[in-house]
Amino acid sequence: MATEQRRRLGEWLPREEHVIARFRETFAEYARERAGRAKRNSVVDEMAAFIHDDPVVRMDFTRAIRQAREAGFTLGYSSIDEFIAMLDAMLTYAPPFSESSLIHCPINALLDWPMVMPSGYALFRDPAFNAHLKRVLNVWSGFLSGPYSRTHLTTDSPDGWFSEEADRKIGLAQFLCDPDKPYWGFASWNHFFTREFKSGARPVAQRDNDKIIVSACEASPYNVQDNVQLEDSFWIKSQPYSLLDMFTAKEADLAQRFVGGTVYQAFLSAFFYHRWHAPVSGTIVKAYLVDGTYYSDADAEGEDPSSLNDSQGYITAVAARAVIVIDCDDPAIGEVACVFVGMAEVSSCMIDALPGQRVRKGEELGFFQYGGSTYCLIFRPGVIESFVRQPPFDDKAPPIQVNTHLCTAR
């Protein structure tokens, strides 16, 4: 399959390469103009200094840019310095709505090709490089959490998120908002992105029946794998789940308890609800964040413009993520692990439910603050009798709604 024809799932980026290339060129022009009149953000200055002072990082980034350009892709930049100017301009960018060419993950759009070039694989796994990326993404998240990010929270067509075109995608009537208030009552872009359903919009399936496990997110099924191993080669083409890497080595005892069990994985669309809910009733026994990568793909996927989607199994072991473990009220089910994985621009996995807290099925656990995202539910061996939807999954089918019946326990 030609790389230009690879699928981009979830509508985080347009499927057509020429649309993203046009965005990069247009944004590059804006960044060049802005660089002459705006002081560069200090976190971007620090990242630029780190890249230039580390010869291996500088070499890998320079070569990744060159390899992408030589492969014929339009990046909008030809050097590290030109990319840095675009990254700095991105820190005051709030995505507009677009019915046909939505750029929901604009930094991912800038890095779409260098990150999957031969020199890019090592670069985007480098811990120090990712630490600087995290600081940059946190600053951008701060902007998106403030009032100046509300530029496109309007009813104006075609860019407004409350326009008729956007409403057809989102279904705003389902959510807590007030059209009579400025910006419909949203304090920021992130407040809109993490919008909440109205009471009753997503009822919990058989709340008092512990055998009915519900979907923790509004998400499209991606994969189900049985007999998962403690350690596996998560970087190969099939991307098997590797429990020790998903939970981290510090939680080896926890990972061991799920060996031989089942992993269910699903991905969220740009237009979906982005809060997480408890799939079972029980007590939170673990809740922790894992720092990781943001734009690292599996080499086995080859040149992958699909916004990390073809590497979803791989990123469960390497990307920034939140892990929440619930000890179910039903002892036959036992512990259920929920792994909420940040993809690309997600630098903030926000946990609400902490260890010791009791949750009922359907209650909120946390949320993704911004960007693309995928999640896993991990069950102990022999727990699951059947899933409502069976693989192979159709990514064009409607998502499984949050709080609806996902699977049945034995």
Fold blueprint:
Elements: H1 17-35, H2 42-53, H3 55-70, H4 80-90, H5 106-111, H6 118-123, H7 127-144, H8 164-170, H9 189-193, E1 212-214, E2 220-225, H10 243-247, H11 252-256, E3 262-268, E4 275-277, E5 282-290, H12 312-318, E6 321-328, E7 335-343, E8 349-351, E9 358-359, E10 364-368, E11 372-379, E12 384-387, E13 405-409
Strand arrangement, major sheet: 2-3-11-7-6-5-9
N- and C-termini, Cα separation: 41 Å
The residue ranges in which pLDDT falls below 50 over 5 or more consecutive positions are 1-6, 304-308
Globular, elongated, flat, extended or rod-shaped: what is the shape?
globular
CATH architecture group name of the largest domain: Distorted Sandwich
CATH class membership of the largest domain: Mainly Beta
How many strands in all? 13
Total tally of structural domains: 2
How confident overall, as mean pLDDT? 90
Question: What is the rounded Rg?
Answer: 21 Å
Oligomer: single chain
Largest sheet: 7 strands, antiparallel
CATH fold-level topology of the largest domain? Glucose Permease (Domain IIA)
Class of secondary structure makeup: alpha+beta
Figure out the total of helices: 12
Order of helices and strands: HHHHHHHHHEEHHEEEHEEEEEEEE
Q: Approximately how much helix is present in the residues?
A: 25-40%
Beta-strand content estimate:
15-25%
